[in-house]
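Minutes, project check-in
Item: structure for the 337-residue chain
Input as provided by the requester:
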Amino acid sequence: MTAARITLAIGAETFLVDRAIASIATRVRSEDPSVQRFVIDAGDDDVAPLALREACAPTLFGDGALVIVRSLDQAGDATAAAIGGAIADLPDNVVLVFAHPGGMKGKALVDAIKAAGADVVDCSAVKAGKLSEFVSHEFASYRRKVTAPAVAALMESVGNDLGLLAAAVSQLVSDLDANPIDVPDVRSYFEGVADVSGFAISDAVWERRQVQALTLMRQSMLVNDAGRMGPMAVAALAAGARGMARVGGLPPGMNEAAVAKEAAVPPWKVKHLRRQWAMWGRDQRRLAAAVVALAEADGAVKGGVLERSSLDPEQKLLLLEVLVAATSAPSPAPVEE
């Protein structure tokens, strides 16, 4: 196989980690369509060592194996020993990919993998100030040009989630012939979805403005089909929840610039996220329930998780309305004793 024998994807940005793994998998499969894929959780010290040895063991017919080891920072002694053995004596037909979120935990193992000649892929979180550069690079990867105002309009429309931004760029370059892509192209393509799903619905939900959240949702429904709107709306809500939790977990006395840098959010949004967290910080059971509901909705609007669980367009729109109504409902008034 000509793909790198060992790759280390290091960083906390899960989208970049998943993209790196997908890219390697594509290359490996192009060279060997019958390659077997193994995914191993390094944090499970009871299962991971044996699973890794079996995945990396030579086979009678030399079948290819793509072995993906996640949560490298959680590896116990037994798993670390198995990884050391694998990288020291790796069969020619095996490709190893390791994922580590960064930081000092598990650094000795990271250093050993690097010393074994691993290709290192930087998957660090993209800071708010670098998002426009990321978007521009996405367009360039398709050999398409984009104006700086169009990049700003796209970020305003879709938000700061890397996965959403990458998907939006892919949609634009696939469906539009304009070169360079400019503001009117972004606005026309994401009309309805952009301004509503990207910011307004999410903010209204997490600020518990139920009437406005439902109004905005229904306005968006008038101009967008469920297949396109559903994933975008749910992803925007999830991105809003993540941003709120990241900001809420930082010391309240930290200045806004430091919070923006640490939480990887735009400085102007810190105040909004702090206000939202103030509404949810003492109601974490409901917040946890809302996150679970979001995860379930994500699968439902994308076609269903279980067999025969797919919804028709009207059911998807109803699910979105129920989700928004339930999540944005004001907190019940405390019962007086």
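Outcome recorded: Residues 280 and 287 are 7 Å apart (CA to CA).
No further action items on this chain.
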